[in-house]
Amino acid sequence: MNTMKNTLTALILGFSLIGFTSNILAGQIEQAEKKLWNELYQNGGTTFYSKKEFTKKSPLISATRVYSASWIREALHCGTHRQCKKTSDQYNRIMSDLHNIVPADSYLTFKLQHSIFGDLDESAPIIRGELRKRDQIISPPADIKGDIARTILYMHTKYQLPLLMNFSLLAIWDKNDPPSQNEIAQNLKIAKIQGNENTFISQPNIINVVKR
Predict the structure, then answer these.
(1) What 3-state class would DSSP assign to 164?
(2) Which residue segment(s) compose the domain that 139 sits in?
(3) Within-domain flag for 68
(4) 190, part of any domain
């Protein structure tokens, strides 16, 4: 009788610990976004895609993933955002990576969630600033194409996520728009917070050894 009781107690405790661990992991995403606003943009800044100035977080600005959350979920086959948070440790880790999180207009966050990046000509309609969109293709301004390429390559190599873009185009973007001083400084700030750099920023030649 005591053996059965001890076994039942151990199972209940085990399930409780699993639930506790899951809650901690799920909280990683919220903690990462707090760090974005409180440590990286505590004095405001500019939105990533449209270069709109802001002084603090507001409903008009949101934390957006360059390698979008929808494509992360599709790669992991874990379901909706809520389901993935509850069941996938990897999803919580990937979504918490500050190298992939940028401030963006909330309007653009919605527009970008099911899109991939590519080059479009001037016949494509502008949706905000210099950002053009046709079907599921988003064409960003020239001065952030390299930033986007280096982020996508980082996410691909660190988490084995699909590239979703032609490698040759990413290499062209990276070459034509090399890391700016702001991008380099941001990379170092993030490294201090979460313990690792985006090596495509700190070691530009590493692109030559990427597994495609």
Answers:
(1) coil
(2) 44-209
(3) yes
(4) yes
